[in-house]
Amino acid sequence: MVIFSLRQMRAKELGQQQIIEGLKSHDSEIVDDFVQQFSRPLFGIILNYTKNPSDAEEILQDTLLRVIRKIDTFRQESDLWPWMKRIAINNSIMWLRKNRSIRQREVHLEDFTPQFSEDGHLEHPIFSWPVDPEDIILNTELASQLYEAIQSLPFEYRTPLVLRDIEGYPVKQIASLLGLKEATAKTRVHRARLFLREKLIKYFEGQA
Amino acid sequence: MRTLFNCKECVDLLMDYLEGNLDPEIQKKLDQHFAACPPCVKFLDSYRACSEMAQQLKDQQVRIPLELENRLKAFLKEEIKKV
Fold it and tell me: Is B62 helix (H, G, I), strand (E, B) or coil?
C-alpha cells in the first residue's frame, strides 16, 4: 500500500460555499471536482476500518452519494469536512457491523498482551522503544506495520481504537457511537493499544 | 493495606493515567511505582508511543486509482440524474 502525507496531496481546492451550491444544484463539473478533492482523504479514513479495497470502495461510493443527498440538511455555519468525515465513519461502522460475522478473522488478543507473574510483575524484560512516534511520517514501512496491526484487530477493538487514537474522539462519544458503556469502550481502546504494542515489539525485534 | 501497586495494576490503569483521569491518590500510587520500577517506565513510554504513532496516521492518505475516481464521478452523475 502506498501511503503519503496529506500535506503532499495535490488537489484543486474548491471553497466550501462553491461545493455546497454545486452539489445542491447537481452541477456535474462541481461533482467531478468534489470527487477529486475528497475521495482520497475519505478513502483513507474508510481504510482504517476495513482494509479490503473493494469493501472500502463500496463504502466510499455510498458516502459520497449520502453527502450529495444530505447536502440540503448541512448547516452552513459549520465546517463541511468534519460533517463529511462523520458520514464516512458512520457508514464504515454500519458496514462493519453488518458484515463482521462473515469476514472477521480469528485473532486472540491474549496472544498479544503483556505477561505477568503470579504476584503481578512484568515477566519479560522491557526494551526501550527504538523510534520517535513522529518518525512514522517518514518511515513508510513502520507506518504499514502499524496499519497492518490495526487492521488485524477484531472489529470490536479496532473501531474504538481508530476512533480514539486516529480520529481523536473522546471515549464518551465513542461509547455513544458504538452503543457501548463508557467503561467498555475504554477497556477496548486500552486492550487494542496493548495489542499494537506487542505486535510492533515483535516487528522491532525482527529488525534488530 | 498495600501502599504500592504492582506492575499489572499499573498497566491496567495506563490509559487513565495518561489522560489524567485518575483520582489523585491512585495517581500518586502509580507515580510511586514508576519511580521504583524502570521496566514499567519503559512500558509506559512504549504504550504512549503506540498511541502517538496511531495519531500520526491521521495525516496519512492512500492513493486511489484514477479509474476508481472516474467510476465514482460517473456513478454520482448517474445517481443525481435520477432525482
Answer: strand
Structural fold of domain A109-207: Arc Repressor Mutant, subunit A (1.10.10)
CB of B47 within 8 A of CB of B14? yes
Nearest to B53 among A32, A133, A168 (CB): A133
B66: domain range?
7-82
**pLDDT value at A43 more than 80:** yes
Contact A47 B6 (CB under 8 A): no
- Helix, strand and coil content of chain B, in percent to the nearest 5, comes to 75, 5, 20
Tell me the CATH architecture of domain A11-103.
Orthogonal Bundle (1.10)
Residues 27-56 of A with CB under 8 A from B: 28, 31-32, 35-36, 39-41, 43-44, 47-48
Contacts of B46 in chain A (CB under 8 A): 126, 129, 197, 201
Of B63, B77, B75, B69, nearest to A62 by C-alpha is B75
Residue A155's pLDDT band (boundaries 50, 70, 90)? confident
DSSP string, A151-184: HTS-HHHHHHHIIIIIS---HHHHHHHHT--HHH
B42-75 confidence digits (pLDDT tens): 999 999 999 999 998 886 667 788 999 999 999 9
A190 neighbourhood in chain B, CB within 8 Å: 12, 14-15
